[in-house]
Write a structure and sequence with these properties.
There is one protein chain. By secondary structure, this protein is an alpha+beta fold. The protein has 2 domains: 218 residues, D-Amino Acid Oxidase, Chain A, domain 2 (2-Layer Sandwich); 104 residues, 3-Layer(bba) Sandwich (FAD/NAD(P)-binding domain). The chain has 7 helices and 21 strands. Helix 1 packs across helix 2. The longest helix has 16 residues. The radius of gyration is 21 Å and the shape is globular.
């Protein structure tokens, strides 16, 4: 087996780049995703990690709703059925537990206990290392799909001009899927610009460490989320609202002043001690949005030996081990991927939604 990776594991241009990603099981009434998260926890735990370099840190996720909390309420019975604990907290109880947060304007608070942060870049490198240890060949290279003839693809063309032949080809190329398969995917996977900010925490304070403050989501006109640093060095703040459509290769990755100012206004409201915190660093990445926010796991409609995986839509990283497992089951054992992940659903699709809709 050969793995081609254009810029290396967890690189800054990939949807899987960056330091941390959240893993949580609340998915409204979409039971299949909660089930996938349960399996993902098992698969993430099977990867080699150490106390000094963990791949996962449990913290819980705090769901704060300014309006209707139907999304979490619909998920609560599913989580209980799967063995995940989730508690609704009274306002005064939430304020007592988390004095860092100003809960004014929040109508309901839920704490999803079995949830936390995955070290994204570190996890990608660990998967690459295991692949090589198992006998796989890893190359940092580009490739373009070859011609499809008589229902199969015979080879790829590598960036150095060489041909790569294989029995099966799997394309898990994130926001570049539309460029590689303009007829099958095209603009149905829409890369959007997303900015992430890291604000410095008060010197000597441990109040904003992941051990003392869970990952949080604030649901209002916009959905803002954050991941406290496990080491307490910075405070990650990001806006889940879909940004403008971009080319993931050429987009300007310089944070914009209006986004930084909006994040500061949010901090002043919800985390007032950080209202004037220095901006320590920032990242510009992308989501790879499918029209309905659901994943893509399916065969190319014209090539039985070509598989397309993607459509992470801002929530796919946590599920990636399960996506790989599903793909392997489909390719090696003939198991059908879930119907909602098939390519046929994308035909003529124009609706845009997120996994919080």
């Amino acid at each position: 087996m050969t793995l081609l990776d254009r810029w290396g594991p967890g690189n800054a241009l990939a949807s899987s780049g960056g330091r941390t990603r959240a893993i949580r099981a609340v998915y409204g009434a979409d039971r299949i995703y909660s089930e996938m998260v349960k399996r993902a926890f098992e698969l993430w735990a099977a990867l080699p990690a150490t106390a000094a370099e963990p791949l996962y840190v449990e913290s819980g996720v705090l769901w704060m709703h300014r309006g209707d909390d139907a999304y979490v309420r619909a998920s609560a019975p599913i989580l209980h059925d799967l063995g995940f604990a989730i508690d609704e907290l009274a306002q005064d109880e939430a304020a007592r537990r988390y004095p860092q947060i100003d809960f004014r304007g929040v109508r309901s608070v839920w704490l999803e206990r079995k949830a936390g942060a995955l070290y994204a870049h570190r996890a990608c490198a660990a998967v690459r290392d295991l692949f090589v240890q198992a006998g796989g060949r890893y190359r940092t290279a580009t490739a373009t799909p070859g011609r499809i003839e008589h229902g199969t693809m015979k080879s790829l063309r590598s960036g150095d001009g060489s041909r790569i032949e294989a029995d099966v080809f799997v394309f898990a190329c994130g926001p570049w899927l539309g460029q590689l398969f303009p007829d099958v995917i095209g603009d149905r996977v829409r890369p959007t610009r997303q900015e992430i900010y890291y604000f410095a925490t008060p010197k000597g304070s441990e109040a904003y460490k992941l051990s003392n403050l869970p990952i949080w989501l604030d649901f209002g006109k916009r959905i803002v989320y954050g991941i406290p640093d496990p080491d307490g060095r910075s405070f990650k703040v990001a806006d889940d609202t879909r940004g403008e459509t971009i080319d993931p290769t050429t987009q300007d990755r310089t944070p914009r002043s209006e986004g930084i100012e909006r994040a500061r206004q949010f901090l002043a409201e919800r985390f007032p001690e950080l209202a004037t915190a220095p901006l320590a660093s920032a990242e510009v990445c992308q989501y790879e949005n499918s029209p309905d926010g659901n994943l893509i796991i399916d065969q190319h409609p014209e090539a039985r030996n070509v598989w397309i995986l993607g459509g992470g839509s801002g929530h796919g990283f946590k599920l990636s081990p399960v996506v790989g497992e599903m793909a392997a089951g489909a390719i090696l054992e003939g198991k059908r991927p879930p119907e909602g992940f098939r390519l046929a659903r994308l035909a003529g699709a124009t609706a845009r939604k997120t996994q919080f809709d």
